[in-house]
Amino acid sequence: MFKKKNISLAVIRRLPRYLRYVEDLLNHDVMRISSSELSQRMGYTASQVRQDFNNFGGFGQQGYGYNTQVLYENLVKILGLDRHFKMIIAGVGNLGQALANYTNFYKKGFRLVGLFDVDPQKVGRSIRNVEIKHINKMREFIKKNDVDIGVLCVPADVAQEVANLMMEGGIKGIWNFTAKEIDVKDDVVVENVHLIDSLMVLSYRLNEKLIEKENADQK
Fold first, then answer.
1. Which of 118, 180, 200, 202 could form a disulfide with 156 if both were Cys (CB 3.0 to 4.6 A apart)?
2. Contact 1, 57 (CB under 8 A)
3. Collapsing DSSP states into helix, strand and coil, what is residue 176?
4. pLDDT in the model for residue 63
5. 189 a known binding residue?
6. How many domains does the chain have?
7. Which residues lie across from 189 on neighbouring strands?
8. What is the extent of the structural domain holding 165?
9. 95 has binding-site annotation
10. 173 has binding-site annotation
């Protein structure tokens, strides 16, 4: 059983990265790793690694470290990847189409079951054998198919309206790729993904490097 306690969002956001590293270790037949070795690979401290895992029960043994298979299985359970989630995408523009074609979703247990748009030139077409339906059919589709996750790839000015339709259908979680922060009911989970924010963080870090180089060149 995992420990029941409030986990910081910072810890939760590190879990997928742990999972990727541990999965890579298994692919290279590494069956045991210490917190020190894992921290060196990931750029964290060994203490932070141990503290992160202790939030969920630990999983390691003193003097042995972590069995990578056991660690992988526990991370999968913590992240809910041992379940299968039904997912729809609202807005089948360039981003929506790219997400619809991303096959790794299926490998991780996310099953794309519906695509929705208002463009008559898109409605009726299919992506990976999933037909694009008109968005006015989305609410009933969610109810009928017990959809878990709605992906928002619509223009920002209609994001709340489309999110409301999803919630009226009974959606449980919304993955929001729009530039608008949406309001959701207490029983709906939302994850906002602002691509431009990430790009601006990259810009900041790149700018810092360029400034360092310019200052060094002036000396």
1. 180
2. yes
3. strand
4. 63
5. no
6. 2
7. 173
8. 85-196
9. yes
10. no
